[in-house]
């Protein structure tokens, strides 16, 4: 009689990571820097995937290029690391090609809102059922800390050595204006609220957008005299939770209070429902 | 029907069920026809916000398991290039139609050309191989679109149909055969243990089977240099292996891929080489030359890329000269010259773009070469 080889039993003293089944452990260590916020937002996304009750076999992750864009490389799901800025149109094709898939786009602010900004507003307008999670670290981290479309006024980056002379996007306002069905903002410090919010977004039938503020101590913090812990303190002390706040009140200025919460949660028929209704009439 | 409509019907017959497009003259009619026909067959049409998005959506739909396509012309083709590279790198089957108009830039939107023949070959950065076909009539566009889908599924590669404004907009008789007369191919699906599946491990013909998202393989697809599992590997060795795979699956199967058509080649001293709309005027010129007793043959390139190098090389051993006829200033002419390798003289009858090349012009060149 042959005996099955004993499988690795997790020792009670060192339990397996609770998200191990969703992580490509063979790709660890990851590339994210110490103090980076992406891992926390990524973990919240994976926790929400497990908790939301959807069949994990139907879940896909699509990313663009950048630090956050590497997320798709670490999730043990069908995962797509696409071209810079094009995660959303790729995800649009994936979803329309098989509407049974649950597609989450996980990418950064530079990828989704500068080079990919056009795609974001059109996917929101169409109300394509996608969950878009944007890790906003206020700069381009992967390339060493250049100014982004989200960099605050007067903030220092490698391409704004004298301070940023441009105004940043208010991302929830943009999402709301473009027609998103669900819009929220949290920081990586608000991990419980964030996880529950992502869970809600997964179950939303429509275009959902969650902005997650996360620190980039190496590239952004260092140049703006913000120590890693100070950024987290700002997230704690300089934020206020106000659900259904007016989207035009959501600028990020840590000298004042930065508003977090769920701002939009509305029902609107999706692009797929409307296509079936208007084009498939036989 | 027009060449553009024949293209759309060919795509449907091939099993295409997703079209992501953006309007552009002279390719718009393909999108219009697909927008009407796709929902009738259970497919999906979407007009994206630009050609970059259109190409990205086509790749997404391909990974959802659909045969997918887009159609465009010069400026849109330029915008699609980065995601065409992603398709080549991630071995994603898809079909892209370029109904060529004169360029560069906005050029002559309503007037034909064949000047994107090198762009289709080299337009995205890096070394890679693609397949490009050049049909010469509406009927042939119908069939070549089916062939394009079959090749893209067989070789997991983007396949291009390089038509032009002239055949795209020309109305001609097109016979659509019964469905059981049309041979369609589907990408090979993986078998065996899902947890041990390698997304880029080549099968017998050098091509890896391809699952769709949602089938439980947990694939990772990246435009970074990757190993057979699909994982990014930043090394010279991984780059070499990946490049060899994506190139060799085309180059090693050239005999299966390349289609040419020879006319009066047996005793020919001069061979006209042409493709697409220019093949039709070249054919007329050849017939006129023959009627005058001149020993002229004609090689029609149906597959442009990979290039019919062997066919040209063999002819070069026994003919006096080649005359390449194309509505550009010598893109394929230079390929013919390269393949002929000094064994036969190579001449060009080119055009700056905007009109067909008349048989008279080709005949005049023949007389000059004789």
Task: Please give a structural write-up.
The complex is a heterodimer of chains A (282) and B (370). By secondary structure, chain A is an alpha/beta fold. Chain A has a single domain, classed as Rossmann fold (3-Layer(aba) Sandwich). Helix content of chain A is 31%, strand content 17%. Chain A has an eight-stranded mixed beta sheet, sandwiched between helices. In chain A, strands 5-6 form a two-stranded antiparallel ribbon. In chain A, strand 7, helix 6 and strand 8 form a beta-alpha-beta unit. In chain A, helix 1 packs across helix 6, helix 3 crosses helix 4 and helix 4 crosses helix 5. In chain B, strand 13, helix 12 and strand 14 form a beta-alpha-beta unit. In chain B, the strands form two sheets. In chain B, strands 1, 2, 3, 4, 5, 6, 7 and 12 form an eight-stranded mixed beta sheet that branches. Chain B has a five-stranded mixed beta sheet with strand order 9-11-10-13-14, with helices on both faces. The mean pLDDT of chain B is 98. At the A-B interface, strand 2, helix 2 and helix 4 of A face strand 2, helix 3, helix 4 and strand 8 of B. Strand 2 of chain A pairs parallel with strand 8 of chain B, so a sheet runs across the interface.
């Amino acid at each position: 009689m042959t005996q099955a080889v004993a499988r690795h039993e997790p020792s009670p003293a060192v339990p397996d990571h609770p998200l191990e089944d969703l992580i490509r452990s063979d790709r660890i260590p990851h590339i994210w820097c110490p103090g980076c916020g992406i891992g926390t937002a990524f973990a919240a996304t994976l926790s929400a995937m497990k908790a939301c009750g959807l069949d994990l076999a139907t879940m896909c992750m699509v990313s663009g290029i950048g630090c956050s864009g590497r997320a798709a490389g670490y999730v043990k799901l069908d995962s797509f690391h696409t071209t810079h800025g094009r995660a959303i149109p790729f995800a649009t094709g994936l979803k329309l090609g098989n509407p049974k898939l649950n597609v989450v786009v996980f990418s950064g602010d530079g990828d989704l809102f500068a080079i990919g900004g056009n795609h974001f507003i059109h996917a929101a307008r169409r109300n394509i059922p996608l969950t878009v999670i944007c890790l906003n670290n206020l700069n381009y981290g992967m390339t060493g800390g250049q100014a982004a479309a989200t960099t605050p006024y007067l903030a220092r980056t490698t391409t704004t050595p004298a301070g940023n002379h441009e105004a940043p996007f208010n991302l929830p306002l943009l999402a709301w204006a473009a027609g998103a069905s669900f819009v929220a903002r949290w920081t990586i410090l608000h991990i419980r609220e964030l996880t529950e919010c992502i869970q809600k977004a997964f179950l939303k039938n429509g275009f959902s957008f969650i902005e997650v503020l996360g620190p980039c101590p190496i590239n952004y913090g260092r140049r703006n005299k913000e120590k890693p812990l100070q950024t987290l303190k700002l997230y704690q002390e300089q934020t206020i939770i106000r659900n259904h706040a007016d989207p035009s009140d959501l600028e990020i200025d840590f000298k004042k209070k930065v508003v977090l919460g769920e701002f939009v949660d509305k029902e609107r028929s999706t692009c797929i429902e409307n296509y079936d209704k208007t084009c498939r009439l036989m | 029907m027009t060449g553009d409509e024949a293209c759309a019907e060919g795509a449907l017959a091939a099993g295409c069920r997703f079209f992501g497009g953006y309007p552009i003259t002279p390719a718009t009619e393909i999108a219009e026809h697909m927008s009407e026909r796709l929902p009738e067959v259970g497919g999906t049409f979407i007009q994206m916000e630009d050609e970059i998005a259109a190409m990205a959506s086509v790749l997404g739909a391909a990974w959802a398991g659909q045969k997918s396509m887009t159609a465009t012309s010069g400026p849109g083709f330029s915008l699609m290039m980065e995601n065409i590279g992603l398709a080549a790198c991630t071995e994603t089957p898809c079909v892209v139609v370029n109904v060529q108009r004169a360029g560069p830039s906005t050029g002559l939107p309503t007037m034909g050309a064949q000047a994107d023949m090198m762009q289709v070959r080299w337009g995205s950065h890096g070394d890679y191989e693609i397949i490009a076909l050049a049909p010469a009539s509406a009927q042939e566009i119908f069939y070549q679109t089916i062939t394009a889908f079959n090749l893209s599924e067989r070789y997991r590669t983007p396949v291009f149909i390089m038509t032009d404004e002239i055949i795209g907009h020309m109305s001609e008789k097109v016979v659509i055969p019964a469905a059981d007369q049309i041979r369609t191919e589907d990408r090979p699906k993986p078998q065996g243990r899902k947890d041990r599946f390698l997304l880029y491990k080549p099968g017998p013909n050098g091509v890896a089977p391809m699952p769709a998202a949602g089938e439980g393989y947990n694939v990772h697809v990246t435009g970074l240099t990757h190993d057979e599992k699909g994982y990014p590997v930043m090394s010279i060795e991984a780059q070499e292996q990946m490049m060899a795979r994506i190139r060799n699956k085309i180059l090693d199967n050239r005999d299966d891929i390349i289609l040419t058509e020879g006319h009066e080649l047996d005793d020919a001293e001069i061979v006209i080489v042409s493709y697409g709309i220019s093949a039709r005027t070249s054919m007329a010129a050849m017939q006129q030359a023959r009627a005058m007793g001149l020993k002229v043959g004609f090689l029609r390139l149906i597959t442009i890329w990979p290039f019919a190098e062997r066919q040209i090389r063999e002819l070069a051993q026994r003919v006096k000269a080649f005359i390449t006829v194309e509505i550009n200033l010598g893109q394929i002419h230079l390929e013919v010259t390269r393949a002929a390798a000094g064994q036969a003289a190579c001449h060009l009858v080119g055009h700056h773009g905007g009109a067909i090349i008349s048989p008279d012009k080709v005949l005049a060149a023949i007389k000059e070469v004789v």
